[in-house]
Structure formats: C-alpha cells, structure tokens
Amino acid sequence: MGHRNEFGRSAEHLVADYYEHLGYRVLDRNWRVRTGEIDLVCAHGTTVVFCEVKARSTGRFGAGVDAVDHRKQRRVRSLAVSWLAQSDVHYLDVRFDVADVDSRGTIDLRQGCF
Q: pTM here?
C-alpha cells in the first residue's frame, strides 16, 4: 500500500474516532459495492450520516470539500440508497458530510454539505 493510501486510511480512522467522540455510532467503514464506496456510515439517534473523507497533504489543490463535485455527490447519494436498502434499521433523517483531514491530522467536518 502506498503512502497516499496509508494517509487516506489513517484519515478515515481519525474521522471515525472523531464521530465516536461526538456520540455517533460507526455503522460501516469503506462500504463497497460494484458502483463505488462510501467511506463512513454513522448514526446518531434517528439520523444516518454518509461521510466522504478527503485527506490532503497540502492545500495546493484546494479544500477536500471542493473535490466533492456534483458528479461525486450523485454517486454518494446513489450508494446511500443502496446502503439504506440493505440496512435492517430505518432512519428518519439522512445527512451527507464531508470531512477534510490535513497532514497534521486536523479535521474540518462539514455537516450537511449536500
């Protein structure tokens, strides 16, 4: 596994721990189907959260949230529908977050981005 992949996995673990610290339950990490992957699925009360984690070693290419364009948002929404269809729990609210993690491990969590 390359340095970028390790950095990305490390960022996902940091964000999962952060959600747990905030009182969320992590339901899935790196949930995959043929059409893609959801980085994190968390729950808090009756809300399920689908989180896209973006790890950036520099700000040279902008914030991670900027990388989640309309095409990526559509893909994550579609994957969320698939995840919800296979889930045995029904949630009243759905939220889509983006977590931006820099090289120092600082997390910028943007809730309800799309």
A: 0.90
